[in-house]
From TrEMBL:
Keywords: Glycosidase, Hydrolase, Signal. Pfam families: IU_nuc_hydro. Residues 1-27 form the signal peptide. InterPro entries: Inosine/uridine_hydrolase_dom, IUNH, Ribo_hydro-like. The keyword Hydrolase applies. The keyword Endoplasmic reticulum does not apply. PANTHER family: INOSINE-URIDINE PREFERRING NUCLEOSIDE HYDROLASE (PTHR12304), URIDINE NUCLEOSIDASE (PTHR12304:SF4). It comes from Actinomadura graeca. Residues 58-385 form the Inosine/uridine-preferring nucleoside hydrolase domain. This is Nucleoside hydrolase.
Length: 393
């Protein structure tokens, strides 16, 4: 499926953009399943009377899994006010785009949500040789702890995965539109209202802003889950997974002069723990489709080991959006990404206020870097109260 552009093809635009950067990588055209019929929306749901958060529309760009952190963020935003979720766009990262498409469609169906479109996006990183260089990357720069989709073969279709999704294959179909086009169209239809949640690699957002830069001033905010700012990486010794998977894309995106960019890095994401205490609060009381999903997918782990815990990464982005008071420590820094093939490939590089005071004018930062807001701490009780309330609706 080709993404139309005003004058250039996506491939041409990407090659030009990447050549202008310091990276030696080449751009790759995104791959996606064959076109299928658009999902027909059902009647819109009514928002809960106690819906939280600022007024505004959201697009959830995600490498979706089965009731993983991306799904939790999606359900939080949807349950707070389903009318504000314009769509879920799928990108390769933790899962291949075919897997993410099936998981997003089916999980929304399980909770009775057929209004929100699921839109297929980039199936590969921008760097055409990304997968081919992984063996050398491990030998030269240190062990890669987690490779996400790269650790298994890419499926040929969202209806032909290696294993059947929870609840079976989806009955609905993804939108015919490509994710980058969907993002552009929705931002133009809702100028100044749309917040982009970038919960996986930023490939779809990079495609959108490089092919249609006119949308940049129309975006209300971009909220990322990604990066390791003041700590080591969790995939390579230097880099957090989302930004390691497609460093070229996140560099394009984080350097784009959006009005407001907020980063939720591993610095805080790996200090908030989901335990049996929170699980028990979620599943208590009358069963709902979402509670049953928690019981079926999370319950066995806590039965095997009641002391088990995990991180909630992407759910934090929804938490601070819906209730900004949850954020207790936020710093502004100029942020860049190392996209040179080497031991720091994918590393987030932050330049803080102390550097500004020492070196003077912000022009001393690398050319093109933007000032972003970085979350370093939260009110955990407030976050969990919000998370659990939304999951129980």
């Amino acid at each position: 499926m080709k993404i139309p552009t005003p004058a250039l093809t996506v491939s041409a635009v990407l090659v030009a953009a990447l050549t202008a950067m310091s990276s030696t990588a080449a751009a790759a055209p995104s791959q996606r399943p064959a076109a299928v019929s658009a999902q027909r929306p059902a009647a819109p749901l009514q928002a809960p009377a106690s819906a939280l958060g600022p007024q505004g529309k959201v697009i959830i760009d995600t490498d979706m899994g089965q009731l993983n952190d991306d799904a939790a963020a999606m359900f939080m935003l949807r349950n707070a006010d389903p009318r504000n979720v314009l769509g879920v766009t799928i990108v390769a990262g933790n899962t291949w785009s075919e897997e993410g498409t099936a998981y997003a469609l089916r999980q929304l169906e399980i909770v009775g949500e057929r209004r929100i479109p699921v839109v297929v996006g980039a199936g590969e990183p921008l760097n055409a040789s990304r997968a081919a260089t992984l063996p050398a990357e491990e030998k030269l720069f240190g062990n890669v702890e987690y490779m996400g989709a790269f650790s298994r073969k890419r499926p040929e279709s969202y209806l032909k995965l290696a294993s059947t999704p929870y609840g079976g294959y989806p009955k609905g179909r993804p939108s015919r539109e490509a994710a980058a086009d969907f993002i552009v169209d929705q931002v133009k239809k809702n100028p100044g209202e749309v917040t982009l949640f970038v919960l996986g690699p930023a490939t779809n957002i990079a495609l959108a802003v490089k092919t249609h830069p006119e949308i940049v001033p129309l975006v209300k905010e971009v909220i990322y889950m990604g990066g390791a700012i003041d700590i080591p990486g969790n995939t390579s010794p230097a880099a957090e997974f989302n930004w390691w998977f497609d460093p070229e894309a996140i560099k394009m995106t984080i350097r784009t002069p959006f009005k407001r960019q907020t980063v939720v890095p591993n610095d805080i994401a790996e200090r908030v723990f989901y335990t049996k205490k929170e699980y028990d609060r979620i599943v208590a009381g009358p069963e709902t489709p979402l509670k049953k999903m928690y019981k079926d997918l999370h319950g066995p782990r806590f039965e095997r080991n009641p002391q088990s815990s995990s991180f909630v990464w992407d759910a934090l982005t929804a938490g601070i959006y819906l209730n900004p008071a949850i954020a207790t420590k936020v710093e502004e820094r100029y942020l860049d990404i190392d996209d040179n093939f080497g031991p720091d490939y994918g590393r987030a590089i932050g330049y803080g206020e102390s550097r500004r005071r020492s070196f003077g004018d912000p022009g001393n930062f690398p050319a093109g870097t933007q000032k972003v807001r970085i979350l370093f701490d939260i009110d955990r009780d407030a976050f969990w109260n919000l998370y659990i309330d939304l999951m129980r609706r």
